[in-house]
Design a protein that fits this description.
alpha/beta, nine-stranded mixed β-sheet, globular
């Protein structure tokens, strides 16, 4: 006879419900902490009239950030320009100099030694140029990279799904600072004139900053040049990866409007100059592969001296003003990236695209040299690519882009380079000595890197060369300060030391020290504001203490240096004072690197320990609930809870101990940034649920077995097709909810 199934007691049902809800919530919380990376976007903005120093900080300058060292800037983005695309190897040329007898088992890759202009200018003008490995934070989709390159912030999981549907950036960024209307709060500076050509992703992210003013210039009521500069914006569609030329041709065909004098202005030039300009204009036209691009209305009246609204000019901003009055040009080409997606990098087409970019860089450099204004050119890739041409961010080749900086004004002197190297070495020692610094990525601990991408392609045929290495977000603070702009409020990048180490700012202060102090003060202001804005900021007490200690140590050292200089006004160039300057600069730089590394672990790196822990808890909870359901048909739920709660409690205690011990090991080995609280919660949940599963699945009592009329085992019930399908459906439903 089959015994009637007992009604489930209310107390047992409530206890089971509470345990199941807590376990599921713990699993979801752990998973989200490791996978659904989030951060709060602060709406604050840095203003030129407000320095980031606190009121009690000693400051030798109270009226400005950093004096602009460049009047103009050109930002040329060669999408997917990997670092080994930009480097040069004489060894490689020598090894493959005889096509009839190449090195055994090797062939020259089509993307190596294809940008000789970078090598040539770096060799001829070392004080005007420098090449860097430009390391991106994954994910390396273009949209996330542009956000980082303009705000100085790290990408988060929520950004990763929006590469093809970009929304406007609300965070403070250097484009906003450029285009901010002159209302008197900008220090009296005139508005900046901006040119944008290329990838339309920029227009999605910056619809207001990249708003073309050509039409408004026809109406004096709408156009007020005194409050806002003019802008020329020509975006081109970016998602057709089979199209290698349209975006590049759109950029290259329009750059001469701004880099070369108008034809009407040639009459006032020296005798040879017009011929040189015409030769340059011809070279630009020859670079355009789709010649029909030149029939666009932008080129319709380009040769007319007096132009109203046709072409690129307007009645208010004529051709000569387009050439002489721009402040920043942003050009973003996609040919190299699309070639990688369509063919992969190991294809002759990429050699052709890189050659085209090489010619374009040569022509831009020629224009910069002719300019009587201090102009800086930034050429960089927003990411790299793997052997298949993809760039999700999973491998070093996908995140290792190149940055090349050139200027017609010397900025990288031998003395400055030596001093910045000493600062980097001291900062590296300081970072490694900090408990938080020991767990950071190698690219933040050391400022140099061996170009193994080049040597690995030829398997020991070449020795890897040593290069300077910086995170991509370092460009933001450097570009901002060198143009006289404030550092964006949310920026986490450090200034590029070489760009300031040869400067002496107002009052005789070393330029790099001034820039780093501004940089560190702004970062500390951001951290304090972030903590004040949210109780759930997620910063550990250890991190907050370490950041505060490192910043206050640097500020104390700076105060001592200021006192030393005040007591000896002629000490500025004395060697012992210069060494103190370098030590203080290293302390600021180390602070910046520890902050970036800690927040990178929190906001930009998936944590496998948290993800796995969360999934294990959710799976064990699902299995335990299924087992309880099967057993409750023959056993009182309250009886099961009464017999198993002590064992479950013991399992939870053991889990907490093991979890905390494992967390210490994982954090010390830089495998995870799991906190002790998270490790304790994971250990408790896993211990309780694992014990419950083992008791329910394998610890059947005699009276339970006798109550079952048929010799059907619990395992047989659990392994039935319907039960398996239901269990799989439950797990998939949980995963689907977690993912979306």
């Amino acid at each position: 006879m089959t015994r009637a199934v007992a009604a489930l007691p209310v107390r047992g049902l409530w206890a089971l419900s509470v345990v199941a809800i807590l376990a599921s919530a713990t699993g979801f919380w752990l998973f989200s902490r490791g996978f659904l990376l989030t951060r709060m976007v602060l709406p604050h903005h840095s203003l030129p009239s407000t320095l980031p120093f606190s009121n009690d900080s000693a400051s030798t300058h109270a009226d400005r950030w950093y004096p602009a060292k460049f009047e103009r800037a050109i930002v040329l983005v060669v999408d997917a320009m990997r670092i080994d695309f930009a480097t040069w190897s004489d060894e490689l040329n020598a090894a493959f100099s005889s096509p009839s007898s190449p090195p055994l088992g090797h062939r020259l890759m089509p993307y190596h030694n294809r940008l000789p202009v970078i090598h040539a200018l770096s060799a001829q003008h070392p004080e005007n140029t420098m090449l860097y490995r430009f390391r991106a934070d994954p994910p390396t989709t273009t949209l996330q990279r542009l956000k980082g390159l303009t705000t100085g912030q790290l990408p988060t999981f929520i950004d990763a799904g929006s590469n093809f549907a970009g929304s406007a950036i609300d965070e403070d960024n250097w484009l906003q600072a450029l285009r901010r209307p002159n209302t008197g709060a900008t220090g009296g500076k005139r508005p900046r004139n901006l040119v944008f050509l290329g990838d339309d992703t920029w227009s999605s992210l910056f619809p207001h900053e990249l708003s073309d003013t050509q039409e408004a210039e026809q109406n004096n009521t709408l156009w007020n040049a005194g409050s806002r500069g003019w802008a020329r914006v020509r975006p081109f569609p970016s998602l057709n990866v089979w199209d290698l030329d349209t975006v590049d041709d759109g950029v290259l065909s329009r750059l001469p409007f701004f880099l070369l004098p108008s034809e009407s202005a040639e009459h006032g030039m020296p005798p040879q100059a017009p011929a040189d300009v015409r030769a340059q204009r011809t070279k630009w036209r020859e670079l355009v592969r789709q010649q029909e691009m030149l029939s666009h209305p932008d080129f319709g009246a380009s040769s007319q001296a007096n132009m109203s609204s046709s072409g690129m000019a307007s009645a208010a901003v004529g051709l000569e003003r387009l050439h002489s009055d721009w402040d920043v040009i942003i050009a973003h080409g996609l040919g190299v990236d699309h070639c990688g997606h369509r063919y992969g990098p190991d294809h002759p087409a990429i050699s052709s695209k890189l050659a085209q970019m090489n010619q374009a860089i040569e022509l831009i450099v020629d224009a910069v040299r002719r300019s009587d204004k201090a102009t800086v050119l930034y050429v960089f890739g927003d990411h790299g690519m793997d052997p298949k041409g993809d760039h999700g961010g999973d491998s070093p080749r996908e995140v290792d882009a190149a940055l090349w900086i050139y200027s017609n004004k010397a900025w990288n002197t031998k003395e400055g380079k030596e001093r910045s190297s000493r600062v980097l070495e001291q900062a590296s020692t300081l970072v490694k000595s900090e408990p938080l610094g020991a767990a950071l990525d190698d690219d933040l601990k050391d400022g140099w890197w061996l170009n193994t991408h080049l040597s690995d392609d030829y398997r020991q045929l070449l020795e890897p060369s040593k290069l300077r290495s910086i995170p991509q977000i370092d460009l933001v603070s450097s570009l901002s300060l060198t143009l006289g702009l404030p550092i964006p409020f949310n920026n986490l990048g450090a200034v590029i030391p070489e760009m300031f180490a040869s400067d002496t700012s107002a009052g005789g202060e070393w330029g790099l020290l001034r820039a780093l102090r501004l940089n560190a003060a702004q970062t500390m202001r951001y951290l304090n504001t972030y903590v004040e804005s949210s109780r759930s900021h997620g910063f550990s007490d250890d991190a907050l203490r370490a950041w505060k200690y490192m910043y206050q140590r640097a500020e104390s050292s700076y105060a001592e240096l200021a006192e030393l200089v005040a007591n000896n006004p002629k000490a500025g160039r004395q060697s012992h004072v210069m060494l103190v300057e370098e030590r203080v600069a290293a302390e600021y730089y180390a602070f910046m690197r520890v902050v970036l590394g800690t927040l990178r672990q929190m906001w930009a790196q998936f944590d496998p320990a948290l993800i796995i822990s969360g999934l294990v808890v959710l799976v064990l909870t699902t299995v335990a609930l299924v087992a309880v359901y099967v057993r409750s048909r023959h056993t009182s739920l309250e009886a099961m809870l009464t017999r198993s709660w002590k064992q479950c409690a013991a399992g939870g205690v053991i889990g907490v101990v093991i979890g905390r011990a494992l967390s210490i090991v994982l954090v010390s080995q830089s495998i995870s940034h799991i906190s002790l609280l998270e490790a304790s919660a994971a250990g408790l949940a896993i211990g309780v649920m694992a014990t419950s599963c083992s008791l329910l699945l394998f610890a059947a009592s005699d009276d339970e077995l006798s109550s079952i009329s048929r010799p059907e085992s619990l395992c047989a019930r659990l392994c039935s097709p319907s039960m398996l399908l239901n269990s799989i459906a439950c797990v998939m439903a949980i995963m689907h909810g977690l993912a979306f």
